[in-house]
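4.2 Preliminary Data

To establish feasibility before requesting continued support, the project team ran the inverse folding procedure on a target of 110 residues. The structure was first converted into the token representation described in Section 3, and no sequence information of any kind was made available to the design step. The complete token record follows.
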């Protein structure tokens, strides 16, 4: 096979029928604003931790919506709870409080 200098990413199919949504529903009960997220990424571009960690609230929320809490933890474990993203979110989500609620709901360790 010819080498083109790049490789294809492995397929990453998410079967939403098999995803465990119970915890996400618990999170919605605790923090209904999670449904307001439009995945714009403003929180990531303003994040104080993004330059030295894998922090991304945007990706964490998408992972939780897809029933992938382990991935979400990877995106949130570097968060310093500084609250900068709360000031920038165009949907007015209290993102700092949302992150705390995610840790609470999913029993993530800080
Ligand atoms: S800034 Fe707000 S709306 Fe945009 S991705 Fe982050 S949490 Fe979602
Ligand atoms: S609260 Fe967390 S996710 Fe938000 S800007 Fe600060 S370090 Fe980044």
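Position-by-position output of the design step:
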């Amino acid at each position: 096979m010819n080498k083109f200098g790049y490789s294809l990413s492995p397929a990453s199919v998410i079967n939403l029928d098999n995803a465990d949504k119970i915890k996400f529903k618990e999170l919605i009960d605790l923090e209904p604003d999670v449904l307001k997220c439009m995945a714009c990424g403003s929180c990531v571009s303003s994040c104080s931790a993004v330059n030295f960690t894998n922090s991304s609230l945007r990706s964490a929320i998408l992972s939780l919506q897809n029933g992938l809490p382990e991935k979400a933890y990877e995106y949130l474990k570097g968060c310093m709870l500084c609250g900068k993203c709360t000031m920038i979110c165009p949907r007015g989500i209290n993102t700092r409080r949302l992150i705390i609620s995610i840790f609470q709901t999913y029993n993530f360790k800080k």
